[in-house]
Design a protein that fits this description.
The chain is α/β, with parallel strands linked by helices. The protein is built from nine helices and seven strands, in the order ααααβαβαβαβαβαββ. The chain has a seven-stranded mixed β-sheet with strand order 3-2-1-4-5-7-6, with helices on both faces. Helix 4 packs across helix 5 (71-83), helix 7 runs parallel beside helix 8 (170-180) and helix 8 runs parallel beside helix 9 (201-214). The longest helix is centred in the first third of the chain and has 18 residues, at 4-21. It is globular, with a radius of gyration of 18 Å. 32% of the residues are buried.
C-alpha cells in the first residue's frame, strides 16, 4: 500500500518521542498543536476545510456520518462558528459510539475490524460543552441505519449542504446516499473518506453504485494534496 513504509517509520518515531517526552499537561500540548500534528493529518483537515468553505453559500446543514471521537465534527463546528456565526447551519453527528459492527459481503476483509473506532459519547459531550457548541451540534446516537430515516421522516424540510461519509462500510454509506440524494441542495457535496481504499471496499462500492444511478446529478471532484478525504461529488442539478 502506498505510504505504508513512511507511515510505519512515522508511527515508530512518534511513539519513541512520546516515551521520551513523558507526561504533560494536556492543554500545553493542545494549544501548540501545529508543533505535534502529522503532515498527512494536517493536510486532511486543510482539505476538509476547503471543501466545507466551498459550501458556505449553499443552503442547508452539515452532517458527518462516522464521527469516532469527534475531532472532525468539532473542527467543522468551530469553522462555522468563526466564519458563519450568525448563520443557521447546524452540524449533525451520526455515530453509534460502539465502533464498526455492520459488515456485509461488499466490505470484504474489513470485517476483521469489528469494534474498531469506538468513540466516547461522554467525552464528546464534555468538549461540546467546554467550547459552548451546544447550539451548533446535534448528536444522533445509534446505528445510522436506525437513526437517519426517522430523523428525515420527522423533519421533511431538513436539507443539507455538506455531508461527510466516514462510515468505512457498504450498508451505511448506501443508506446515506440514497436517503440524502433529494435532501442535498444544489451545489452541496457528499465527501468520502475511504473511497477507492482497498482496505475499506464497501464505502467505495456504495458510492460507485450510487453514481451509476444518479451520476447525471453530480460531478466527481478530486481532492488534491491529501490522502483523505479521497473523493467528493458535488450536486449540479435537481
Amino acid at each position: 500500500m502506498k505510504f505504508a513504509s513512511e507511515d510505519r517509520r512515522y508511527i515508530d518515531q512518534r511513539k519513541e518521542y512520546s516515551t521520551n517526552a513523558g507526561k504533560r499537561e494536556i492543554w500545553t500540548t493542545v494549544d501548540h498543536w501545529p508543533l505535534y500534528v502529522g503532515i498527512s493529518n494536517l493536510a486532511r483537515y486543510m482539505a476538509i476545510g476547503d471543501l466545507l468553505r466551498s459550501t458556505y453559500g449553499v443552503p442547508g446543514h452539515v452532517a458527518e456520518f462516522g464521527s469516532w471521537r469527534g475531532s472532525n465534527l468539532m473542527f467543522m463546528a468551530k469553522m462555522l462558528k468563526i466564519h458563519d456565526h450568525m448563520g443557521s447551519k447546524v452540524v449533525h453527528c451520526f455515530d453509534s459510539f460502539e465502533g464498526l459492527t455492520t459488515f456485509v459481503k461488499e466490505d470484504g476483509e474489513a470485517d476483521s475490524s469489528q469494534g474498531a473506532y469506538a468513540g466516547s459519547y461522554e467525552e464528546l459531550e464534555a468538549m461540546i460543552e467546554l467550547y459552548q457548541l451546544q447550539d451548533n451540534i446535534e448528536i444522533h446516537k445509534g446505528l445510522i441505519q436506525e437513526t437517519l430515516l426517522p430523523l428525515l421522516d420527522k423533519n421533511p424540510a431538513l436539507t443539507f449542504s455538506f455531508v461527510y461519509c466516514d462510515t468505512d462500510l457498504f450498508e451505511p454509506t448506501k443508506i446515506i446516499l440514497e436517503s440524502l440524494h433529494t435532501r442535498l441542495a444544489k451545489g452541496g457535496v457528499f465527501v468520502f473518506d475511504e473511497w477507492n481504499d482497498a482496505r475499506w471496499p464497501g464505502e467505495g462500492i456504495a458510492a460507485n453504485e450510487f453514481m451509476k444511478r444518479f451520476g447525471d446529478y453530480y460531478e466527481m471532484v478530486h481532492v488534491p494534496n491529501t490522502r483523505q478525504p479521497s473523493m467528493a461529488i458535488r450536486k449540479i442539478r435537481y
